[in-house]
Automatic annotation (TrEMBL):
Cofactor: [4Fe-4S] cluster
UniProt KW Transmembrane keyword: no
PROSITE patterns: RADICAL_SAM
Classification via Pfam families: Radical_SAM, RlmN_N
UniProt-listed InterPro entries: Aldolase_TIM (IPR013785), Methyltransferase_A (IPR040072), RlmN_N (IPR048641), RNA_MTrfase_RlmN (IPR027492), rRNA_lsu_MTrfase_RlmN/Cfr (IPR004383), rSAM (IPR007197), rSAM_sf (IPR058240)
GO cellular component: cytoplasm
GO terms under biological process: rRNA base methylation; tRNA methylation
UniProt-recorded name of the protein: Probable dual-specificity RNA methyltransferase RlmN
Native source organism of the sequence: Metabacillus lacus
């Protein structure tokens, strides 16, 4: 049985789509492709209109394109169609999707509803290699990177669901399964496509990228000089605790990470967010709050405290509410900009990777 599962996994790993996704192409790339294939470059904007405004489900629907061009597109590309395996809806309106990819692997995407609009949390990898000890996403390790079009398609699929309610996606966070900076080029193409006014037209300041702290990529991202919001999963005030929670800290120490953070702020002029999950008895004491305040002293930042979701495969417990408020109060006393993340989707498989771990056990062993 085990040998059969390993053979199936190997087949998945080696299976590539017959044709690339058209969602992977930036507008300029599509223009170049069209001119190289004897078509006028302005057709690219028409195609983008069909993809991102009209949200066409097939090339055949693109009625203002010639039959020859529609056939040409059909011959060379696919509209990446994610198969919806499961769609959960929470009492607070949060929606969680488990999508199947062309090779049978699965990914999660979450729609969160806020007073200020609809936010989509997207996945960048099938699994994750970072190995954070509190996260369900890393169960089973990394299977593969997503191509840009597979990330774009997640937003399109959620938008299609919202079309039925006459609503739109107003913001995007790259905080789903995987480490975005581990799939840097595809992530940057995704950002360009969803931000473009001919694409999904989501403003840069309504997009947030989060990383576990791959330092060389932080410097690279800083040099991009985008207006996109930037967050770092910190989760600890010192190297000892962070290495326990996040093995990546053994390669990229906290002191070096903070130097990269300062470079980013100096280069972009933008504030950075630190995600800090509170784990009962591990990193949630007043002494940890004091140490955290000292770590970020003088840094232009905001700290987002996260009451962690329980993950059955992991061995951490939630911090009691009174201790969360005490932690927040300690930071505020030290002049730190801090908020507690509002919990959403608590009555469904809300933790990142949890739905996939439950439903697709062969992927997460």
């Amino acid at each position: 049985m085990k040998q059969q599962e390993e053979q199936t996994a190997e087949k998945k790993k080696n299976k590539s789509p017959e044709k690339p996704s058209i969602y992977s192409l930036k507008l300029e790339e599509l223009k170049k492709w069209l001119t190289a294939n004897g078509e006028k470059s302005f057709r690219a904007e028409q195609v983008f209109d069909w993809l991102y405004v009209k949200r066409a489900a097939s090339f055949e629907e693109m009625s203002n394109l010639s039959k020859n061009l529609r056939d040409l597109l059909q011959e060379h590309f696919v509209l990446t169609t994610l198969k919806t395996l499961i769609q959960q809806t929470s009492a607070d309106g949060t929606m969680k999707f488990l999508f199947e990819l062309h090779d049978g692997y699965s990914i999660e995407t979450v729609l969160m509803r806020h007073e200020y609009g609809n936010s989509v949390c997207v996945t960048t990898q099938v699994g994750c290699r970072i190995g954070c000890t509190f996260c369900a996403s890393t169960l089973g390790g990394l299977k593969r990177n997503l191509e840009a079009g597979e990330i774009v398609a997640q937003v399109v699929k959620v938008q299609q669901a919202l079309d039925e309610l006459d609503e739109r996606v107003s913001s995007v966070v790259i905080m789903g399964i995987g480490e975005p900076f581990d799939n840097y080029d595809a992530m940057m193409s995704f950002l360009t496509i969803i931000n473009h006014d001919k694409g999904l037209n989501i403003g840069a300041r309504h997009i947030t990228v989060s990383t576990s702290g791959i330092i060389p990529k932080i410097y690279k991202f800083a040099d991009e000089k985008t207006q996109i919001n930037f967050a770092i999963s910190l989760h600890a005030p010192n190297n000892e605790i962070r290495s326990r929670l996040m093995p990546i800290n053994k390669a990229y120490k906290l002191t070096d990470l903070m130097e990269a953070v300062k470079y980013y702020i100096e280069k972009t002029g933008r504030r950075i967010s630190f995600e800090y999950g509170l784990f009962g008895g591990v990193n949630d004491g007043v002494e940890h709050a004091e140490e955290l305040a000292e770590l970020v002293k003088g840094v232009k930042c905001h700290i987002n405290l996260i009451p962690v979701n329980y993950v059955p495969e992991r061995d951490y417990v939630r911090t009691p509410k009174e201790k969360i408020f005490e932690f927040e109060k300690t930071l505020k006393k030290r002049g730190v900009n801090v908020t507690i993340r509002r919990e959403q989707g608590h009555d469904i498989d809300a933790a990142c990777g949890q739905l996939r771990a439950k439903e697709r056990k062969e992927e997460t062993r």
